[in-house]
Amino acid sequence: AEHHTARCSSPDFPEPPIRRLSTQQAQAPSPSAHRQAAAAMADRYSFSLTTFSPSGKLVQIEYALNAVNQGITALGIKATNGIVLATEKKSSSPLADQSSVDKISNITPNIGTVYSGMGPDYRVLVDRARKVSHTGYKRIYNEYPPTRILVQDVARVMQEATQSAGVRPYGVSMLVAGWDDGIEPEDDVEALVEGEGEKKPSKKTGGIHKGGPMLYQVDPTGSYFPWKATAIGKSATKAKTFLEKRYSEELELEDAIHIALLTLKDNIEGEMNGDSIEIGIVGPPADHLLGVEGVEGATGPRFRKLTPQEIEDYLTSL
Hints:
This protein is of the alpha+beta class. The chain has a five-stranded antiparallel sheet with strand order 10-1-2-11-12. Helix 5 packs across helix 6 and helix 7 runs antiparallel to helix 8. The longest helix is centred in the middle third of the chain and has 23 residues. The protein is globular, with a radius of gyration of 30 Å. The N and C termini lie far apart (92 Å).
């Protein structure tokens, strides 16, 4: 030990110089410390749903929208005489029974919906919409709710999940398609016609729409808005670009079905057939499903899903 100590302190083996840091260098954090601090700050805002980040965002909602953007592509097209909802039916395993996979659901006889995102969240919202339609609205007013009223209720439920503690946003976006009967213009309301001395019916509806096909989108934020044609899911941007080139105000339902299939064909991988594609339409009332005849004002359901054979026939005609 004495030999080792003497050797280290001898002139032949000088001690290494001690590097002294300046005060500024000693206090400056390393880049890794900066990254750790930024990550801790981001985690703080991403963990809390009800806390806005410094950039003015609710990070959990951003994550919910990401879940939608990673979902299977779905689209809706409004025609003059109906609406088309279309999506790809993709199961998690080739051993799964394809007939049990449903992405398009009916809410009322005239309203249907499709989704992109988390299936369990979608199922909860569909059950809620059915409950409101059948036991809430219809029991009071003796009719099913208009599409807009139903969409407002679903959007309210989704919005409440963005500002409540202990819950998370719904990771799903929905396209809701329906047919509203509307209200006929009131012929007995008179108004002066500018520049004329006589009175003519104003044809006002009291601010209520005149009915017809309606297409809405509902997002995890609780926002909802009407569309002529739109798409959601991982290929939404590409599908919307395709729809913009093909859409026309004068589209008939048959043409809209063909455009929907062409859009899916341009955006999905794999073979398209009646088992891999799901289509729902809102069209003319199916009075033959009523089971009764001669009842005044009775009409059959307008919403139905196409059978695999019907889809195969449309694919053959493309």
